[in-house]
Amino acid sequence: MQLKNDLLLRAARGEAVERTPVWLMRQAGRILPEYRAVRESLSGFKELVETPELAAEVTIQPVDILDVDAAIIFSDILVVPEAMGCSYEMIEKRGPIFPKTIRTEEDLKKLRVADPHEHLNYVLEAIKITKRALNGRVPLIGFAGAPWTILAYMVEGSGSKTFSHARGLLYTNPKLAHQMLRMITDTTIAYLKAQVEAGANLIQIFDSWAGILSPAQYRQFALPYISEMCNAIRNVPVTVFAKGAFFAMEDFSKLNCETIGLDWNMEIETARQQVGPNKTLQGNLDPCLLYSSFDTIQDETIKMLKEFGPQRHIANLGHGVYPDTDPEKVKCFVQTVKEFSPVINN
To answer: How crowded is the C-beta side of 273, counted as CA atoms within 13 Å?
Structure first.
């Protein structure tokens, strides 16, 4: 299907674009009253994720309401461990909880390398429904968690400030950690390939807990598996967003991906120097800026755009938009990007 707006894909590939494309991580979610209306009619978050027609509906809402340049399928990175046999619960105002964790060889035997068409078909159906409904208006982003981040949840059992159990496993049983990472990577590669087959135009890999590892550990337990994923997905652009991994920018420059996401703590000029001219950068406005005045949002967004410069940039926040953000402030950010961007010669 011919896309009416392919700015995101062209920017990712380093091709000429008329203006900087813009979208937001977590744009489909609690900031929108329309999302809350759908969510409140259900038993919980997981029912929404696992109901393809409704997942498609909330995926498209930000395109209609916020006027962003891409949709991102409404799902969660934790569908992968669930598909592997490690189920989770999503507790309101607390986050994900894993009733059973994976910390021993016996625990690992209970896991499987999942078949996406059998165990994650609800996501693939949501992608197909979304693609039909979008009818080429904007690209659709598919995604998955990076293997280290998925392992961190499966071992820890929940979110954590330290992930001490998960990090401790890397020291006490590195063999088990690598076996687990192998299974997660194999599952995720198959899952991402199936997302592309279902219609995803771009893939984003989220390494949400990259920043809690030392550089040496990250290079041993995270980067090789992300590299495998990038090498496996070559028919659509790939974005790697590793929160807190400022120390790995030069490593990311060698990945077989098109775009590197920056969080709000990463300096744009430094990142560009480390990554080089052959990658697109995505980000990196502080989500908390959207609590400020409309004038401040406009000024800081323009400042960010000028710092990134006219080449190879996708405008976004440095992390997901926070749930108590005023949608009008989000619209201000989106429209500022669209109105500021000059004609660009890549």
So the answer is: 8
User: Does 344 have pLDDT greater than 60?
Assistant: no
Reduced to 3 states (helix: H, G, I; strand: E, B; else coil), residue 97 is: strand
219 among known catalytic residues: no
Amino acid at position 34, single letter: E
Task: Give the model confidence (pLDDT) of 284-305 as tens digits.
Answer: 999 999 999 999 999 999 999 9
Q: What are phi and psi of 79, to 5 degrees?
A: -65, -25
Task: Quote the pTM value.
Answer: 0.97
Our measurement of the distance from residue 165's CA atom to the centroid of its chain's CA atoms, rounded to an integer in Å, reads 24
User: What span, in angstroms and rounded, lies between the C-alpha atoms of 295 and 301?
Assistant: 10
Spot the catalytic one: 35, 88, 153, 218.
Answer: 153
In degrees and rounded to multiples of 5, residue 184 shows phi and psi of: -65, -45
pLDDT tens across 20-41, in order?
A: 999 999 999 999 999 999 999 9
Residue 15 phi/psi, 5° resolution? -90, 165
Considering the candidates 13, 36, 39, 219, report the single residue annotated as catalytic: 39
**% residues pLDDT > 70 (the chain):** 98
3 state SS of 167: helix
Check residue 1 and give its pLDDT: 76
The yes-or-no verdict on residue 133 having pLDDT over 50 is yes
Cβ-in-10-Å burial (0-12, 13-18, 19+) of 322 comes to middle
Contact, 300 vs 285, CB < 8 A? yes
Q: What is the pLDDT of residue 92?
A: 82
Distance CA 270, CA 105 (A): 42
Q: Residues 13, 30, 182, 219: which is the catalytic one?
A: 30
